[in-house]
Amino acid sequence: MNAIDQSLQSLRDTFRRDLVWPFLAPEHAAKVDVSNQMILYVEGLNLSFDGFKALNDLNLYVKDGELRCLIGANGAGKTTLMDVITGKSKPDSGSVFFGQTHNLLSKDEADIAQLGIGRKFQKPTVFEEQSVFDNLELSLKTDKRVIQTLFSRLSPSEIDRIDEVLKIIGLNDQRFMKAGALSHGQKQWLEIGMLLVSDPRLLLIDEPVAGMTAQETERTAELLTSLAGERTVIVVEHDMEFVRSIARTVTVLHQGSVLAEGTMDQIQNNKDVIEVYLGEEAVEA
Amino acid sequence: MSKLLHWFSAGRTSGKYTLPFVILLLGITLLASAANLLLPESSALHVSTYSITLLGKYLCYAMLALAVDIIWGYCGILSLGHGAFFALGGYAMGMYLMRQIGDRGVYGHPTLPDFMVFLDWQELPWFWLGMDQFWFAMIMAVLVPGLLAFVFGWLAFRSRVTGVYLSIMTQALTYALLLAFFRNEMGFGGNNGLTDFKEILGFDLQSDATRVSLFIITALLLALVLLVSQRILSSRLGKVTLAVRDAEARTRFIGYRTERYKVWLFVYSAVIAGVAGALYVPQVGIINPGEFSPINSIEIVIWVAVGGRGTLIGAIIGALLVNYAKTRFTAIMPDGWLFALGALFVLVTLFLPKGLIGLYGQLKSKRQTLSTQEASS
Ligand SMILES: Nc1ncnc2c1ncn2[C@@H]1O[C@H](COP(=O)(O)OP(=O)(O)O)[C@@H](O)[C@H]1O
Ligand SMILES: [Mg+2]
User: Fold this and answer.
1) Who has the most CB within 10 Å: A130, A279, B23, B95?
2) What is the spatial distance between Cα A279 and Cα B298, in angstroms, rounded to a whole number?
3) Which intervals of the chain form a coiled coil (chain A) (predicted)?
4) Residue B371's pLDDT is what?
């Protein structure tokens, strides 16, 4: 009797109306398993360019919802780390997991983006020949396969979403302007907007305030802090003032590996860091 | 169906000149056709059948230019091998026309084309089977270029070959086909190609009415291809295409599989080129391996550059103007054309980077600023 009950139950489960069969579920709705509170696991990463070790046994763990700052001198490997996480470069060895289940090293850029990892580049790259609005439309979280894109049309909720982001990034009046005509700071904002509109789980932001005025920098700091919590944010920044204003946890990279990790105060008092990083600054000053 | 119609009518501002252009194109086509068929030859307004055929040929080139512009102007893939897709479409049509000749060839063989009898072949090679059916030959005219483009694109774009390397590969592709089609054993007529066509669908290819019909059909198909392409390129897929052209890596990082977009656009473009080739052959009456020559493919790119790449109408205008100039020029100085073409290309790249359409845009905006200055003073 019991066996029949069980098989009946499993049959009912199979045809439950409130669930979608796994193979029918759209790819981009893939779940990120963060049951251990960690969203990003980077372990033992090595990557060398012609013998030069850009990443050297790098380990990094980022909690779900955290706002993490990466600092380090020029050439420390910060951008290279982002390249590896987003699928642009493949490391020589090591592993990168998004949640507990998604092995990022086995995926390409498009896959990784669709999993919900968004990236802002060090040098702002927007689609210069297209309008600000189109830039945002392209970045929407939608089905990005060819045929679906051909027949897609903006839904009212998507338009609302774009309008909302345009207000947040302060480019509402420039919405029909070509992105190439924007100022450097505005391009930075547009790129942040492209991130926001794609509704990512994890944001990788490389030097966001370069070329921004003090006021814009302050607004960026506010925006990034407000994003953390629901999303996870990793920021690379040189501007120590800026880092101080947003950071809870700071990771210092040096010659391709992690030199120190902790709160801003801990970092500032860390002997190694003073020696190799803040020391230089102190000497220069 | 209604969804499809809706998709068609929802074009955005970018194509605002397309509809007027299509009306103009079809209007001229009808006038020229009427002037050929209805006016007596003595009339000053009579258009000769020779001119009609020449116009039809230009329109085929215009369609080919459109195909190249879609892939180069909009997606940044500089294909220097589109002549190959054009020629393959042409050969499919040529094979059909050969089989239409039936037993009226020089050797009078009931099924074998003359060149096969000459080579002492006993039966049709397998790839000639079915080509006596018009519908089958037309399917081949789009399927073969499409398949070749798919395989080539899939291999090249997936391994992320771009820029000059890709252009060289496309040149190699058309060159390889040139060498292959030159060989008699390939079964495509060797260096003589396919010619001496008699009829298409039972209509005499030499008659005025057939010539005019082919011309009108070419114009109609060009208009259709233009409208469909305009619509595709103003959809979100068109925006992704531009994004790939301007910043492909960035496009990947927002989640688009750019290589798939490139492959499908390449296939679409190759199919258009194939159709253009199939329309070309019955009008000029011959197809031979020369159509595969690498220089042909380079010429197409120059037509597009002259007209203005990244504007579909520009590509069409460029093809029409340059080919008209070529007809005129080669009548005077047959050997000088390649030099003239090279000079034209240099001039356009230096002084008209956006082609004639870009020049028109510049003049217009200059006049606008002038008139606003006048209004304010
Ligand atoms: N594609 C590459 N080829 C060779 N060397 C590279 C490449 N990318 C980065 N590097 C080198 O790796 C090191 C780390 O660079 P990067 O990650 O950009 O540093 P940063 O921390 O300033 O962002 C630098 O010394 C840089 O020159
Ligand atoms: Mg960097």
Assistant:
1) B95
2) 60
3) none
4) 77
